[in-house]
Specification:
Elements (H helix, E strand, L loop, with lengths): L4 H13 L15 E3 L31 H6 L4 E6 L7 E10 L9 E10 L6 E5 L13 H6 L2 E5 L19 H15 L7 E6 L1 H12 L6 E5 L11 H6 L5 H16 L1 H15 L8 H20 L14 H11 L7 H18 L37 H13 L2 E8 L15 E8 L13 H15 L22
Parallel strand pairs: 5-6, 5-7, 7-8, 8-9, 9-10
Antiparallel strand pairs: 1-10, 2-3, 3-4, 4-6
Helix pairs in contact: 4-5, 7-9
Amino acid sequence: MLRDPRWLLIAALLASCGDDDATSDASTTAGASTTGSTLEPTTAGPTTLEPTTAGSTADATAGELDILAALQAIDGLTVEELDPEVEGYRAFALTFLQPADHADPDGLKFAQRMTLMHRDLAAPLVLSTDGYNISPGSQKLSEPAALLHANQLRVEHRFFAASRPEPADWSTLTIAQAADDHHRIVEVLRPIYGAAWLSTGVSKGGMTAVYHRRFYPDDVDATVAYVAPLSDGVADPRYVDFLQQVGDAACRQALADFQREVLLRRPEMLARIDAEAAEFELTYDLLTPELALEILVLETPFAFWQYLGAGTCAQIPGVMASDDDIWAFLGVVSPAYLWSDDIFLTFEPYYWQAALQLGTYAVDESAVADLLLFPGKDVPETFILPGPGKDPVFDAAAMDDVAAWVAGEATRVLFVYGETDPWSAGAFEVGDADDVHRLFVADGSHAAKIADLAAPDRELAHARLEAWTGVTPMARALPQEPPPRLRRPPR
């Protein structure tokens, strides 16, 4: 994903908040699991894989095949080997030539960016489907890849950053076209990586992994989707209901008071937006500072519970706080620069998808309705620039179809959610699907991980990973991708 200042912000927040001990509350109901089957041991039996030497030119468990040569032999794939940063891995920046429209495979093409962390051809491969753009130089591992000592392929989503056809036909930015992208990638790399394949993703990346399985259920052996919602329409009221009951009443009221205080100090806050824009050379030509201010105020409760939560309630500034304190807290929970032009443009494809197929949450304006100059503007259509063919009409059938598949036909899927993350209001219903599991981290945020689960649920997750891949999960001190910092988009 784009390496903008949000990463520094969320890294600092998580460092200051720390992680709860996932083994400390095994009896909590929030840690309870909803599963579609009982556990079955893998027939292959657990395997222990030892890392190969970083940068080696042969794979110890797979003959003399050199991964670089194998990659270079794939038609349409460009390969650049990077200096390795993680012991036992080789790293590659890749692009793969994809049809802009898979219904017209001989037509316009675009280069889709990917990164590969290669360890051993005998190890599983984790397909990490990103919902947005990737950093081609990143050598971070997803949690499943770290647990399984696996290879990892991370894929940038079509239409984000460099992975966009030119000219762009926005009608091809659909979940089916993205699934076709991932299917072609699996087709060309499956002959090289013959062990188990596991797909994963966080938030919109997790959603993307589920969509891929919906259209191509046999492309991978299993899926771990983190904090992945399924929204009911472009103004799903379940999220409003969630925000009206999460935490305690005093904290919710403090957030409402804070929202009002920001808008009651509109001139002072706008002056700070202008000063920040001048200092960091930001522009607000696409979304005016006045509108940006109202949107970030409306987003504050959602953003607060998405990443901060009850432990931060006491830090919410009150009505007697100084302008600087109000601005500083706003910068932590819902920064203004998230709505500046460069970041606005980065996420425009997300808003298109939300308006066309994905849906999103309804926005509750009640706390500040009398102070708004732009009521009703915090909707996906506001963030889509005008242009030919850019008038999306929401298709409810797309998510209805995915929901029905997950609840009735899916198999070998693990969903992990945070209990107090607002996106969990849209958690997938697993129904009677076989070997599909839904677990919640107690008091967990949008950064929920398997490691944070209560002990019984963590053991269940590890057991399923072992059953699906034949590899016993093992905690390992490897760098992992930091959790994303979002405004509206789920990642």
